[in-house]
């Protein structure tokens, strides 16, 4: 079991770094380094009053009701709205006394940094079996970046074993809207917390909106920690409308599923094995990954590499036929 690196964590979306590494690349850059839906939910017209006044408790409650309906929570009181799931990832470790925390990885590295930064003992484990003895277990489901998914029954069994020793399960379901057959929300145990992202599915990462789902007692504790007016009025309005638009989400899921298949076909000749990941991003594993990263960078296409394994590259979905064409032409010019 290896500790995750404490060095600077690479994230997607850093086009300043792309331009530093490839100063002669053609503009505009195509950013495929994130797992954000490239076809965003259409922003509704927002009245000026949303920017001029503080959001009301009724607005906040209605947003959490909309999220409960979208995610399958049995009670809206279990849903806590926040200004993005990253805030929740950073905040959660402060709500426990110092504990032994097992993180199922490799995965999104901010989890380990947050728990370790709050003074907890953190270990990365390769399977749930390796988490025995931990007081808190953190997992991303589906996992980022490889798309590994644990089904609900397995999660419930693990939560039950943790409960017998007073432990807690934290499940980050950032990509579960399109890949979430195993979501824990509808059958949430009392000792589990689920995190859900809004911006990835709806292509509106800049709105900064996310949710925690937890038993009422812990949900109240989390609300107090966030404080009043933690979510802006405009974010509440956009979130409420989008979360209730089931037809848009279904159509987006079907369209992005086809995009993922198209991307798999494009990347398959360069990968040493089957493509993995989720509907919103695909992960290739190959000896040529470093060379392909540089080749694409010189063509103004930014993809996600990983500190811990130079064989891996993660590709988000292009958002237009023009961008698909640039990616296809660049890949056609690449020779292993």
Molecular structure report:
This protein is an alpha/beta fold. The protein has two domains: 15-40 and 247-332, Aspartate Aminotransferase, domain 1; 50-244, Type I PLP-dependent aspartate aminotransferase-like (Major domain) (Aspartate Aminotransferase, domain 2, 3-Layer(aba) Sandwich), CATH 3.40.640.10. The chain contains 13 helices and 13 strands. Strands 2-8-7-6-5-3-4 form a seven-stranded mixed sheet, with helices on both faces. Strands 9-10-13-12 form a four-stranded antiparallel sheet, covered by helices on one side. The protein has a two-stranded parallel ribbon with strand order 1-11. The longest helix has 22 residues, at 246-267.
Number of helices: 13
CATH domain topology of the largest domain: Aspartate Aminotransferase, domain 2
- How many independent structural domains? 2
Span of the ends, CA to CA: 33 Å
- Output the helix-strand order: HEHHEHEHEEHEHEHEHHHEEHEEEH
């Amino acid at each position: 079991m290896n500790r995750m690196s404490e060095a600077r964590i690479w994230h997607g979306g850093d086009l300043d770094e792309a331009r530093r590494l490839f100063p002669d690349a053609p503009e505009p850059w195509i950013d495929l380094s994130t797992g954000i839906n490239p076809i965003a939910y259409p922003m509704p017209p927002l009245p000026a009053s949303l920017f001029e006044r503080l959001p009301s408790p009724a607005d906040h409650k209605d947003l959490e009701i909309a999220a409960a309906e979208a995610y399958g929570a049995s009670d809206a009181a279990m849903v806590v709205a926040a200004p993005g799931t990253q805030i929740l990832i950073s905040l959660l470790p402060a709500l426990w006394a110092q504990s032994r925390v097992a993180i199922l990885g490799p995965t999104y590295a901010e989890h380990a940094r947050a728990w370790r930064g709050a003074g907890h003992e953190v270990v990365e484990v390769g399977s749930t079996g390796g988490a025995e003895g931990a007081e808190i277990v953190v997992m991303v489901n589906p996992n980022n970046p490889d798309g590994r998914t644990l089904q609900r029954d397995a999660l419930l069994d693990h939560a039950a074993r943790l409960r017998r020793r007073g432990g807690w399960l934290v499940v980050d379901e950032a990509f579960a809207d399109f890949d979430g057959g195993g979501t824990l929300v509808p059958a949430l145990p009392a000792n589990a917390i689920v995190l859900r992202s809004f911006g990835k599915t709806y292509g509106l990462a800049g709105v900064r909106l996310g949710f925690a789902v937890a038993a009422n007692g812990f949900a109240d504790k989390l609300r107090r920690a966030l404080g009043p007016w933690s979510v802006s009025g405009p974010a509440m309005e956009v979130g409420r409308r989008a979360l209730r638009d089931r037809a848009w989400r279904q159509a987006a899921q079907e369209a992005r599923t086809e995009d993922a298949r198209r991307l798999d076909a494009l990347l398959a000749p360069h990968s040493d094995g089957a493509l993995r990941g989720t509907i919103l991003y695909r992960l290739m594993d190959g000896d040529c990954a470093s060379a392909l990263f540089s080749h694409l960078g010189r063509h103004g296409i930014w993809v996600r590499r990983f500190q811990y394994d130079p064989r891996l590259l993660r590709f988000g979905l292009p958002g237009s036929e023009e961008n698909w064409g640039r990616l296809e032409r660049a890949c056609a010019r690449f020779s292993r």
